[in-house]
Structure formats: C-alpha cells, structure tokens
TrEMBL record:
Domain of life: Bacteria
Organism name: Pseudobowmanella zhangzhouensis
Organism lineage string: Bacteria, Pseudomonadati, Pseudomonadota, Gammaproteobacteria, Alteromonadales
Pfam family membership, one: DUF1415
Name assigned to this protein: DUF1415 domain-containing protein
C-alpha cells in the first residue's frame, strides 16, 4: 500500500470519523487496532472484485479484525460509476452467500445524498479522500447498535454538527481530505 495513501486514510479516520464522532462505533476498534485498511491500486472491476473476495476471506479467518476499509486508490472518481461498483459488490456478497453476514458502507470524495446539492455539508459525513468500500460484519454491527442508546439519531446529529460548524473550522477539517489531489497525482 502506498504509505501516503495509508497515512491520509488513517488521518481521515482519526481526524474526521473519530474526532467528530461521525461514527460512534469507530473509536474502540481503532484504539484496539481492529480496523484493517486494505488497498486496491487497480481501477479494473475484476481486480477489485478479487481484492474484495480476498478481504472477505481475511474477515472470515481473522476474527480479531472487526472491519475493513477497502481503499480504491485509482479510478472510480466518478460517483455514479462508484455507486455501480458498490451495487456489483453487494450483488457479489449475495451471490456468495454472505448476505446477512457482511455489508458494505460507502465513502467517496464526491459523495452526494439524493436530494442534496454537491456542496451541502451533510454529504461530507460520507466523504473520504478516496473511494472506500467499508466491509462490516453484520453480527458486530448489531452488537454495537444494541449497546448504543439511539442509533436513529446519528445521521441527523451528524448533519446538525456539520451545519453548525463555523466555516473556517469546517474548511480546516475537511480540505486536507477532500479538496487535495491524491498522492502521486
């Protein structure tokens, strides 16, 4: 994995996802080194599917790894193309019998929720420096959700947090991850 890519994704995880508590379930496994970050340098769908299969295999055999961030270092800059890839990966999970065992959460530099404008801050809750397929064990997700008092409030809490953040703080936090060129480009 490109060390620059790894460093940037780790900083995003720490400084955005965890420091802002956008995902209240991320801090514990990060502290315990249970989040795997894997890189797929190819922009070829078949190669990505092969790495996805390998990472699911890793999760199947390594219970100490709670979750994997599969970083797509090259390609899939177009958000619609990326969503098509996510759908293909979800279909692969279902075809291989992993539906209900694993799920994919998605992050992308141009993430945009339906009905929003590209610059709307709520989109930044799912923006990352690279396209990322977040592979989650559903049993672990269910366990942490059962322990959290009100998971339904998380998205609105995140939207409110970003909407109420002063503009200078927002720019300072997000620009290093979203508005910069990728390392090596």
């Amino acid at each position: 994995m490109s060390q620059q890519t790894l460093d940037l994704v780790q900083r995003w995880l720490d400084e955005i996802v965890i420091d802002l508590n956008l995902c209240p379930f991320a801090a514990r496994p990060r502290r315990q080194d249970k989040i795997r970050i894997a890189l797929c340098p190819s922009d070829d769908t078949e190669a990505i599917m092969s790495v996805l299969a390998s990472e699911i295999g890793h999760l199947n055999t390594n219970i100490a790894t709670e979750t994997t961030l599969l970083v797509l270092e090259n390609g899939f800059d177009d958000f619609i193309d990326y969503l098509d890839l996510v759908a293909e990966c979800e279909d692969w999970l279902a075809d291989k019998g992993y539906e209900g065992i694993y799920q994919i959460a998605s992050f992308h530099p141009a993430y945009q929720f339906a009905g929003t404008l590209a610059q709307d801050r709520e989109n930044f809750t799912n923006r990352a420096p690279y396209p990322i397929l977040h592979l989650l064990r559903e049993a672990e997700l269910t366990r942490v959700i059962d322990q959290y008092p009100d998971t339904d409030s998380i998205p609105q809490r995140n939207i409110d947090l970003l909407n109420n953040m002063p503009a200078d703080e927002f720019e300072q936090r997000f620009c290093p991850f979203i508005h910069t060129k990728k390392p090596g480009n």
